[in-house]
Amino acid sequence: MKRVLTIQDISCLGKCSITIALPVISALGSETVILPTALLSTHTMFRNFTVKDLSDQIAPITQHWLSEGVKFDAIYTGYLGTAEQIDQMKELFRTFGSDDTLIFVDPVMADNGKLYPAFDMDYARKNSELCAAADIIVPNITEASFMTGMEYREEKDHDEAYIKEMLGRLSELGARISVLTGVSLEPGKTGVMGFDRETGEYYHFQNDKVNATFHGTGDLFSSTCVGEMMKGKSWQDAMRIACAYTARTIEVTMKDPKKPWYGVNFEETLPELIRYE
Ligand code: PXL
Fold first, then answer.
1. Mind listing the pLDDT tens digit for each residue in 66-97?
2. In angstroms, what is the span from residue 99 Cα to ligand 1's centroid?
3. How many structural domains comprise the chain?
């Protein structure tokens, strides 16, 4: 069985980061090891959330794993708390990474043109360093604009030239595969476009756009990609499945009159995910 290490916060309530990665990657058949970076009462879209930084736990936990000879097939980072934690992640990649370890970085920090409340421009720049150490990165357009210095454009203003230029600039950060999420290549559609620097190949996949945004959908997308790649799917197939699954989950959530405002009903669609091909 493959073993994935995922490093992100625990938001006790809110359906994001580890509370999505753990069930999704496990359901896709990989052992999921967690390294929590912070403990929050809720995700940061709630007001008055509490935070306990767990940076001081990273060294002792990873030292213990080293002494146990633990190895990982993939290391997947999502929402991290501080610039110092990014340095800790770079060190962790050097310690646990090998040619057989997929380093998957989702530089979670912003959406809809704006940084999340906990972050500033220094943190955004620091994320470029994390992306440089990855095999595959999956920023949304906002995150990519902060890391590349390109202007942020809303979906209605996307075109292939803008997306390809952004992918080119992301590739220069250093990862082999760069994937942009929240890309709209035709009106009424949304999806992803990726670029493999080694083969020069582009890949894109588009879904019908549902006019709603939910927190945690980026984490659902990334967790599905990681889980599918661990099943042996190519990055392109993993992107296609993750996109279709995320869109399906939003659609199902929209139909629930009691849906929570803070996250999607992925629990309802998880049984379908394991049958996606
Ligand atoms: O879904 C991304 C995410 C993860 N973790 C925390 C967040 C967010 C988005 O707002 O606040 C704590």
1. 999 999 999 999 999 899 999 999 999 999 99
2. 30
3. 1
Q: Is 133 within a domain? A: yes
CATH number of the domain within which 266 lies: 3.40.1190.20
How many angstroms does the Cα of residue 273 sit away from the middle of ligand 1? 23
For residue 262, give the nearest of 225, 216, 230, 229 by alpha carbon.
216
Q: Which residues contact 256 (CB under 8 A, 6 or more apart)?
A: 265, 268
Q: Is the CB of 221 under 6 A from ligand 1?
A: no
- The response to whether residue 44 sits with its C-beta less than 6 Å from ligand 1 reads yes
Tokens of 220: 């659902």
CA of 38 to the centre of ligand 1 (A): 11
Provide the residue range defining the domain that includes 58: 3-270
- Tens digits of residue pLDDT in 153-206: 999 999 999 999 999 999 999 999 999 999 999 999 999 999 999 999 999 999
Cβ of 73 below 6 Å from ligand 1: no
* 257 in a structural domain: yes
